[in-house]
Amino acid sequence: MTSELLNQLHVQAWRLRAKPEIQVVSAPPETVEPEGIPVPSTETQAVQEVPALDDDAQVGAIESEPFVAALGGHQVPVLAPVMVASEPALTAPEMREEPEHVIPDISEPLVSDPVAVADWTTLQSMINTGLLCPSCNTNNAVMGDGSQQAQWLFVFDSPTTTDLREGQICNGRAGGLYDALLSACGMARTSVYTTTVFKCAPTDDLSLSPACHAILRRQIELIAPKVVVAFGEFAAQSVLKANEPLDALRKQTQTCFSTGVRVVPTYSPLQMLEHNELKAEVWRDLSTALRWYRQLP
To answer: Does the keyword Metal-binding apply (predicted)?
Structure first.
């Protein structure tokens, strides 16, 4: 029954018979020892720890016994160190000698400003010849009058036609009131210096005003007064380089051109003639100036 079933399955009975197990023993690989080079043993060998050496010592120490033993006894050819030319050290760029920078001396006033170094004679010549202002000339300008060593300087805004003709500042009724104020303060025209911001009759060309301001500043520097009295708003603003109204300037302690010279802004004699009540205000301002003056060394 079994044989018929196997025949139906087309399986030959003899193929189902058990075969004896065949044990294959592989032969160890044949070792071929190269001529002149011994093959290292496969047994585990203790490798001696090699101490670290610095770069300079490695070249000479490579032939020592520990290194040969660590390489299994092989003789390693020692290569001579190759000397590589190092790149030249970077240096700072070549310094070029530069000419010394000469610092200008600014302790003295610049000669380019002739007014800043002018004396009284030079100032008068500049005004007479119209060097600084084309409106000024010998017959149409007045620099001032009084003592050039005065301790009090009085400044008006501009001369009138009468002032230009007389060669003296503040004439007529205004001049009489001015003289009365000086006398009340114990002064006279000859003991003070009287001048104006504009040295000639004023014009509508305001571009000419810088020359007048420069002359006035130089006059103050040459006189070196202890007190400056500015009559009127324009004169006060010019001396103080301010744009505030006269009433505001009168309430503040003022100095002239940052020089430390006391400035007393007040109303002009012409304003006092038009408004009689201003005389008391002017006298109050002058009394304050007198107290300052007496306290000065």
So the answer is: yes
Query: Residue by residue, what is the 3-state secondary structure of 165-228?
Result: HHCCCCCHHHHHHHHHHHHHCCCCHHHCEEEECCCECCCCCHHHHHHHHHHHHHHHHHHCCCEE
The tens place of each residue's pLDDT in the chain, 297 residues long, gives 556 665 666 656 555 555 555 454 555 555 555 555 555 555 544 445 545 545 544 444 444 454 444 444 445 444 455 454 555 555 555 555 655 555 545 444 445 688 889 999 999 998 888 888 778 888 888 999 999 999 999 999 999 999 999 999 999 999 999 999 999 999 999 999 999 999 887 666 666 677 888 899 999 999 999 999 999 999 999 899 889 999 999 988 888 766 678 999 999 999 999 999 999 999 999 999 999 899 887
Find where tokens 């004396």 sit. Answer: 119
Q: Which two tokens stand for residue 41?
A: 């043993």
> Domain boundaries in the chain?
114-295
| CATH architecture type of domain 114-295 | 3-Layer(aba) Sandwich (3.40)
Say how far apart CA 246 and CA 93 lie, in whole Å.
66
Tokens of 187: 């002064």
